[in-house]
């Protein structure tokens, strides 16, 4: 058994797990944060995307012990004080979800994408970067629309702050 300590959504958290425990299972089973979904366990679907030390990762492809000492943001920690993050709000406004299973991973991937590309994000880039996230319901059109809308809002907010 290994002890894993992480800063999760701004709080220091620890738990014991077997050395072979995937980060996604540690998040869900040991930390009780069930917004991160287990879809395929093979790094194909993207339902388990989280931010590890500020970067988007598929938590089914990392062992919990590898992440120990890191800062982790899950879908539960994305928005502050009950408000939705702009990407979450855009998914709602632009109907970027149906069953909702892929939504946490899509949102986390979108936030990372927007943070990396900023105002230079376009439809082709969004579609290319969503390649590792599978949605079986929406056909992606509204997801792309939501990400571009959130990008525009977040870019305008950044410019206004400068």
Description:
The chain is α+β, with helices and mostly antiparallel strands and 162 residues long. The protein has helices at 23-30, 64-67, 86-93, 103-117, 123-129, 141-161; strands spanning 2-8, 11-17, 49-52, 55-58, 71-73. Strands 2-1-5-3-4 form a 5-stranded mixed beta sheet, sandwiched between helices. A hairpin with a 2-residue loop joins β3 (49-52) and β4. It is globular and about 45 Å long. The protein starts with a strand and ends with a helix. The mean pLDDT is 94.
What's the helix-strand series? EEHEEHEHHHH
Distance between the termini: 48 Å
For the report, how would you describe the main beta sheet? 5 strands, mixed
Main sheet strand line-up: 2-1-5-3-4
Radius of gyration: 16 Å
* SS field, number of helical segments: 6
What's the pLDDT, averaged over the residues? 94
Set out the fold topology.
Layout: E1 2-8, E2 11-17, H1 23-30, E3 49-52, E4 55-58, H2 64-67, E5 71-73, H3 86-93, H4 103-117, H5 123-129, H6 141-161
Parallel strand pairs: 1-5
Antiparallel strand pairs: 1-2, 3-4, 3-5
Helix pairs in contact: 3-6, 4-6
In short:
This protein has 162 residues and is an alpha+beta fold. The protein has helices at residues 23-30, 64-67, 86-93, 103-117, 123-129, 141-161; strands spanning 2-8, 11-17, 49-52, 55-58, 71-73.
């Amino acid at each position: 058994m290994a002890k894993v300590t992480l800063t999760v959504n701004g709080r220091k958290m620890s738990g014991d797990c077997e050395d072979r425990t995937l980060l996604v299972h540690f998040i869900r089973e040991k930390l009780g944060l069930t917004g991160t979904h287990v879809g395929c366990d093979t790094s194909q679907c993207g339902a388990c995307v989280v931010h590890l030390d500020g970067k988007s990762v598929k938590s089914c492809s990392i062992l919990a012990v590898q992440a120990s000492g890191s800062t982790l943001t899950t879908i539960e920690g994305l928005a502050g004080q009950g408000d939705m993050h702009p990407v979450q709000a855009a998914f709602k406004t632009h109907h970027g979800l149906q069953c909702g299973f892929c939504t946490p991973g899509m949102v986390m991937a979108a936030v990372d994408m927007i943070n990396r590309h900023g105002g230079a994000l376009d439809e082709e880039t969004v579609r290319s970067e969503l390649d590792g996230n599978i949605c079986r319901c929406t056909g992606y059109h509204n997801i792309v629309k939501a990400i571009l809308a959130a990008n525009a809002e977040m870019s305008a907010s950044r410019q206004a702050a400068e």
